[in-house]
Design goal:
This is EF-hand domain-containing protein. The chain has about 260 residues and is mainly alpha-helical. The chain has a two-stranded antiparallel sheet with strand order 1-2.
Length: about 260
């Protein structure tokens, strides 16, 4: 009973949807990670091969090439041999590409060593950045957002709670409007009071926002006056607004039904 009561509390509904979405996102995360790995692998092989070819190229700078072929600390390699630091092997290359996409390091710094290679490598790097940031990341993000939205909409308890909360807020708002309409404070609204207050632009705009057509005030009054007392009490007003809100068709149908009954 305690668990059921806890889950039904409004304060925990966002938390429940978030936890459910995070758990449901694990499958999407797996496939997204796989796509990232494949992409980094394909481009990584290309860049690592270019870096290795440059290192063994006899036309390259002999002194720097020989020095960079030795084992150097990361801070020294990053300053003196950036090509080896970023592209000295397949794993390092894939890690560098991940840094470039995720913001772990500015991608312009990762691009700079490629200027020692033929221009095609620089162009391919620009292609990689464009594809990753404007296509791959946006697609992955949209998948996660769509999955979260579907889980939020399919959460039956969440939907019910949202509906109940919306109904409660609507009723509270209608109570406030009824108090504004009840100018003499006797707990009921007459036709004259309703016609007078319906000229208020503030109330008219609010009813329009609720898709409630109030142009036919007299007919609207008779529809709400369920006990035919000539006065609308708070219960009749709130119930009538709740039943008639929505598209104007609801009010039109109700008016037609009322006139048919009078005939």
């Amino acid at each position: 009973k305690f668990t059921r009561a806890l889950r039904s509390m409004m304060i925990f509904r966002e938390l429940r949807v978030m936890v459910s979405s995070l758990c449901g996102a694990l499958i999407s995360l797996f496939w997204s990670t796989l796509i990232f790995i494949i992409t980094f692998f394909i481009f990584g092989v290309f860049f690592a091969d270019g870096a290795m070819s440059h290192a063994v190229d006899p036309m390259a700078d002999v002194v720097n090439s020989a020095r960079c072929m030795t084992q150097l600390p990361d801070d020294v390699a990053r300053a003196d041999c950036p090509l080896k630091y970023y592209y000295g092997g397949l794993f390092k290359t894939m890690a560098s590409l991940y840094w470039a996409v995720s913001g772990g390091e500015d991608w312009s710094q990762i691009l700079a060593p490629l200027h020692h290679l033929p221009a095609g490598y620089v162009l391919v790097f620009y292609l990689f950045i464009t594809f990753s940031m404007f296509a791959m990341l946006n697609v992955v993000t949209s998948v996660f957002v769509d999955s979260t939205m579907q889980r939020s909409q399919n959460d039956r308890e969440f939907v019910v709670q949202c509906e109940l909360q919306g109904k409660q807020e609507f009723m509270e708002t209608m109570e406030q409007i009824f108090e504004e309409l009840d100018s003499d404070g006797n707990g009921s609204v007459s036709l004259s009071e309703l016609e007078e207050r319906m000229n208020d632009p503030h109330l008219t705009a609010y009813f329009s926002a609720l898709s409630l057509d109030i142009k036919q005030v007299r007919k609207l009054f008779h529809l709400m006056d369920s006990d035919r007392s000539g006065q609308i009490d708070k219960r009749e007003f709130i119930s009538g607004c709740f039943n008639l809100k929505g598209e104007a068709k609801n009010l039109d149908v109700a008016i037609l039904h009322h006139e048919t009954r009078r005939v």
